[in-house]
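hey can u check if this looks right to u? its 216 residues, i copy pasted from the old doc so theres a chance i mangled smth
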Amino acid sequence: MKTNQIMTRPMGEFKVTQRTKDGFFNATELLKQWNENSGMKKEVTKFFEVQSTGELVKVIMERENLNTQDSTYLKMRGKNGGTWMHPILFIDFAMWINPSFKYDVIKFVYDEMIKFRNLSGDAYPTMCKAVKTILPEGMFREKIKDLARSLNIIVFGKHESEMRNKIADEAKLKELYDLEMNIAQWINIGIVSNYLQLKKALTTLYYQRYPNVLPL
């Protein structure tokens, strides 16, 4: 069972609250900040009266194979109470609050994607530094290209040059970052001591993720 934690993240001049177990955001808390700042009295219930909201809820349920509306939003009482929304529904809600707020919402989403692209870029030299320590002199350039190709196939299912800059999928970029950092850690703590061991570990990981692919 995942341990649920509450994270507070900036969105423009406001703070949004997200829980880690399912990624849901507290819509009530954001709207309260907006109302206090603008002097308005908007209500979360009005958002659900909009026809497009119901249509979006149905799409989220269909695309993500969810069985009940509680899988897209739910109301809670007590500590951390309020209406909690699925991330996609929450983004739509945040843009519904006010047209001028759309910029902050879109920038929030954009910044998150760029953050993971930059993180994966930062992880790459860390991995390279570690890999260099287990390779014979003069073999690094050849083997690091081979390794980059392997990582792309594991994470993205295919290989292309500059793959990380062509993908705008936050989850995939985070996955690439984690894998590169894991490789560096395996080497630095001695779990992997040569390139053959590294390739074997990555091959095992590949077939765990793609069990229906026949081994070569």
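The chain has nine helices and five strands.
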